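MODEL INPUT / OUTPUT PAIR
PAIR INDEX: 1
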Amino acid sequence: MHNRLFRFFLLLLALPLSAVSPEERKREAEKRITANAGDFRAVFNLAYANFQLNDYKASLEGFQRALLLAPDHKSKAMVRYNMGNVLFMQKKIEEAIRQYRIGLRFTPDDRALQYNFTIARMIKKGKSNQKQNKRDKQDREKKEKRSGKKGESAGQQGDTPQKAARKRTGVMKKEDARRILQALKQRESKRIKARVFKAKKQSSSVNRKEW
């Protein structure tokens, strides 16, 4: 989904061009660069045409050249934006974020830059959370595996005939039942407190202004 969103915004900051195919745009840009290697518009358009042709390596190199020729802050922001988009398509999210951030220094009110910067950061955060969740799951599984082995060993070595009988018959001591009941009460108390806190929080935010 995010690929489609990025492609939509990619078109917003392209230099004004006639409705031609990427191949035609590339040929025209190359012709103009041959006549004038310092033509910012031609260098930019060549990089943009390569992007449309999915040649991301050539596109990024082209935008890097265009950056050196950019005549003003707006042009530099436009190049940084497109460099960020190329890097994003290459799944280099952190590098893309850096380009968007630099672009926003030149044009802080640019909505397309703001949007892509925000989306890229959300994707980075989501990936970080996935990695952390995976690590947490692996840690839990290791602990459960270790504790399970210890429990089996202790049960085999230290069970008295009475304990073994209770395991077979399902008989529970009064002390055990009391502890379990107390734990359930405490858990239910925490749930009630959490619901009350959530309700208060929702009611207090009804009139709060959203930014």
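PAIR INDEX: 2
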Amino acid sequence: MNSEVAKRIAQITSELAQAETMGDQSKQDPLVMLKQRELDLRAMDMQRKAQEGIMKMETQQDQFEDRLDFDKVKLETQDEQSDERLEVAREKMKMAAQAKSKKEK
């Protein structure tokens, strides 16, 4: 019987504590609520700034990769042009050598 009474007292005490906690939450100090809201806004702002930073880094990475691609194409074009100039110079040298050999004959 005593153990049943003790269990019931513990149960009622627990229920009262929960009710009191819930009542306290609904009657929270307006200053505490304002500070909590301010903290929430700061956290949201920090998260927004972090997201912006990530997006900025991604944009910079894309720009860097685009610049690398552009430079690569530019170098390839310059290399092709150099090869073509070299080929033209070789052909001119051949023609000059042939013309010289014809004159010597």
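PAIR 2 NOTE: The chain has one domain: 2-104.
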